[in-house]
Amino acid sequence: MSRRPLSLAARSTLATGLALAAFLGATGFALDRAYYEGAISVLRDRLQGYVYAYLAGFEVSRYGKLIPPDPDKLPNPDFSRPGSGLYAAVIGEGLRWDSPSALGRDLPFGARLAPGQTQFRGPVPTKVGRVYLLSQGVAWLVPNRGEINLTFHVAENEAQFERQLAAYRRTLFGWMAGLGVALLLLQLLLLRWSLSPLRRVSSDLARIERGERERLSGRYPPELASLTRSLNDFIQSEREHLARYRNTLADLAHSLKTPLAVVRSRLESENGSLELRRDVLDQVRRMDEIVAYQLSRAATSGHQTFAAPVPLAPHAEEVVRGLEKVYAAKNILCEFDIEEGARFYGEQGDLLELIGNLLENAFKWANHRVLLTARLQIVRGARRPGLELIVEDDGPGIPEDKVALLLQRGVRGDERVQGHGIGLAIVQDIVRAYRAELEVDRSPELGGARFRVRLPEG
């Protein structure tokens, strides 16, 4: 099953949505990385500041003992609170000091760095969680003892950093999502405004197909003005061509029928061989019927995009009134079951030929009753509805094995019945011209033949 093509608005929205998602995604990633790098730099500077504060607060006695700063002078009170997530340590040869917050905790404070060397790592996995660690080696000058190499370590649990980063990401992605939705809505509004002339053209064409308008009218943008002019020219050309064609056929009918009528009248009035006159009259009559059939067939316009709708009920009544006069002796009762609003989208002459031949065939074979049914065939998405015509009678019906033979041109159901078998052939020509379907079976209600014609939706 083929996939239904996307509309212009859907294509533009999809393309814009993908481009916008890619752009906002790349922008969000870049901003997130920039913030992450900045936050890491701030964290490193903060830890470096703690190291400098400890360097300023520590003392080493002449005996080589470490003298930590007073608890009130610590760079952050969390260094005195166990499990606070902020830890410090000082390590030297034979020397070690740990902040109260680091006591009893297995932290990676064992590295010893050369004087002047600084190392920043993280996040480093530990038993108390992942931490960011800054280490700096210093050479401490002790009177009467010379230099002592010490390494200052400061570590901070990543929880605070991750909370800060998560809060930023929530804010960033929330704003990005809101901005994306706002831009998509704006794009939809702009598309709706930009494509409104195309929707107006489509709506005007649908009105023309339904017969509510004659041509495209109104002011269109320059990009569509040429298209609408071409469509109007095409519609006008189609109508003028059809009018010329019908006029030519009318002239042809007049030109052919008049000489045939003269020949017939002369043969009927003048003396001569009775057998010759009978044969010639038969042939003239045959020629006259063939001309009528060919003209009817040529005049069938077929499916038209911009055909005006023809109401069905009044034309059906007109046809039936004529047939009731022709078959007055049979006293046929013709009933209608025509849905309100049933219309034929095509030429009026084609409609009269179609229902006229079907009803004439029904009157010819019916005993007492004929039923004409017309129903609209509404399909969602179609510009105009289809039409189903059903003609039934209470006659003898048509055997299934003779349906195909009967529909052949020139074949009659019964040679004793007047006619030359071209009526149903005309029906078939009209059915083909309008891309319709013709079914012949037995009427379940009346018992005779049932002819069903389904004209497709537009």
Automatic annotation (TrEMBL):
<keyword id="KW-0067">ATP-binding</keyword>
<keyword id="KW-0812">Transmembrane</keyword>
<keyword id="KW-0597">Phosphoprotein</keyword>
<keyword id="KW-0808">Transferase</keyword>
<dbReference type="GO" id="GO:0005886">
    <property type="term" value="C:plasma membrane"/>
</dbReference>
<keyword id="KW-1133">Transmembrane helix</keyword>
<feature type="domain" description="HAMP">
    <location>
        <begin position="192"/>
        <end position="243"/>
    </location>
</feature>
<feature type="domain" description="Histidine kinase">
    <location>
        <begin position="251"/>
        <end position="458"/>
    </location>
</feature>
<feature type="signal peptide">
    <location>
        <begin position="1"/>
        <end position="21"/>
    </location>
</feature>
<dbReference type="InterPro" id="IPR050428">
    <property type="entry name" value="TCS_sensor_his_kinase"/>
</dbReference>
<feature type="transmembrane region" description="Helical">
    <location>
        <begin position="172"/>
        <end position="191"/>
    </location>
</feature>
<dbReference type="GO" id="GO:0000155">
    <property type="term" value="F:phosphorelay sensor kinase activity"/>
</dbReference>
<dbReference type="InterPro" id="IPR004358">
    <property type="entry name" value="Sig_transdc_His_kin-like_C"/>
</dbReference>
<dbReference type="GO" id="GO:0005524">
    <property type="term" value="F:ATP binding"/>
</dbReference>
<dbReference type="Pfam" id="PF02518">
    <property type="entry name" value="HATPase_c"/>
</dbReference>
<dbReference type="InterPro" id="IPR003661">
    <property type="entry name" value="HisK_dim/P_dom"/>
</dbReference>
<keyword id="KW-0547">Nucleotide-binding</keyword>
<dbReference type="InterPro" id="IPR036890">
    <property type="entry name" value="HATPase_C_sf"/>
</dbReference>
<dbReference type="InterPro" id="IPR005467">
    <property type="entry name" value="His_kinase_dom"/>
</dbReference>
<keyword id="KW-0472">Membrane</keyword>
<dbReference type="InterPro" id="IPR003594">
    <property type="entry name" value="HATPase_dom"/>
</dbReference>
<keyword id="KW-0732">Signal</keyword>
<dbReference type="InterPro" id="IPR003660">
    <property type="entry name" value="HAMP_dom"/>
</dbReference>
<dbReference type="InterPro" id="IPR036097">
    <property type="entry name" value="HisK_dim/P_sf"/>
</dbReference>
<dbReference type="InterPro" id="IPR058619">
    <property type="entry name" value="PhoQ/CarS-like_HATPase"/>
</dbReference>
<keyword id="KW-0418">Kinase</keyword>
<keyword id="KW-0902">Two-component regulatory system</keyword>
<protein>
    <recommendedName>
        <fullName>histidine kinase</fullName>
        <ecNumber>2.7.13.3</ecNumber>
    </recommendedName>
</protein>
